Amino acid sequence: xxxxxxxxxxxxxxxxxxxxxxxxxxxxxxxxxxxxxxxxxxxxxxxxxxxxxxxxxxxxxxxxxxxxxxxxxxxxxxxxxxxxxxxxxxxxxxxxxxxxxxxxxxxxxxxxxxxxxxxxxxxxxxxxxxxxxxxxxxxxxxxxxxxxxxxxxxxxxxxxxxxxxxxxxxxxxxxxxxxxxxxxxxxxxxxxxxxxxxxxxxxxxxxxxxxxxxxxxxxxxxxxxxxxxxxxxxxxxxxxxxxxxxxxxxxxxxxxxxxxxxxxxxxxxxxxxxxxxxxxxxxxxxxxxxxxxxxxxxxxxxxxxxxxxxxxx
Length: 313
What we know:
Elements (H helix, E strand, L loop, with lengths): L8 H8 L7 E6 L7 E7 L2 E7 L8 H13 L17 E3 L2 E7 L11 H18 L12 H11 L5 H17 L6 E4 L8 E4 L2 E5 L6 E4 H12 L9 H14 L4 H27 L13 H12 L7
Antiparallel strand pairs: 1-2, 2-3, 3-5, 4-5, 6-9, 7-8
Helix pairs in contact: 3-6, 3-7, 4-5, 4-8, 5-8, 6-8, 8-9
C-alpha cells in the first residue's frame, strides 16, 4: 500500500459522530490502493469506506466527491459520500481530509470475460452521459499538459530507444489532441481493479480521484487498453468487440471519434506508461512501496504504434 495513515477505533468514533452514521462496530484496513489510505468501516447503521487523502487538498476534494454524489443520484453504482451535519462531504482526520462513502457490493473481475466487458462498455457510456450534467469542471489532471511537464523528468532514467519513442509519441499526441471531439467529465482510471462485479452486472465503480474534463474517447481507450489487452500486451478481439458494441449501444460514436480511435489508443497508453515511469523513478518519500511496472504500457503503446492490429471501429 502507499502512504498509510493509522486510524484506531478510538480515534475514528468521535470523527464518525459528525456524519451521524451510528456507532462503530468494526474497522479494517484495505491493502489495495497506491494513492490514499482506505478502511472498511461497519457501524450499526451501515457499511462504509473511509478514505484518508494523502495527496489531495481540501480545495481539490469538492470536485471529486461532488462528482460521486452527482453520479450516485443519477443511479449509477458509485460510492455515495456521507454528509456531515453541516453538509460537508469531508472532514479533517489526523490532520488530513477524509471522507466516508457507501461500501458497494461485488469484487473486481481481474480476468474478465466477454460478459464482463459488455457490462463495462455499457457502464462507461452511462457514466459519460450522466457526468455530462455535472456542473463543476476541471481539466484532466494527468492530461497533455502533465505529459509535457513530466516527459523531461523521466527521460534520464530511460534507455535511448525508449527515450526516442516517448519523445516521438508526445510530439504526435500534442499535435492531435487539439481535434474537436465530444467531451465531458471522465473517470480516467477505469481499470479492472476499480470496477466491482456482482454476478455479471457492475456492482460498483470506484476511485474517481483522477477524474477531469477530457474527450470521452480517451476514457474509452483507457478502458480498452486494460480490459481488451492481456498482461502480455496481446490484443483480445472478442473482449474488445463486446465492450465496444455495448458502449455504442448506449452512446454511438461520431465519425470524428471513429477516425481518431487509433491515435486515442496510443494517447491512453502513453498516459499510463508515463505515470508509471514517474511513480517508479520519482516517488515522494514513503510513497508507492510497490509501483506498477511501466513496461506494461510501454508494450501496449508499441502494439498500437506498430499497427499489427486493425483498431478501426
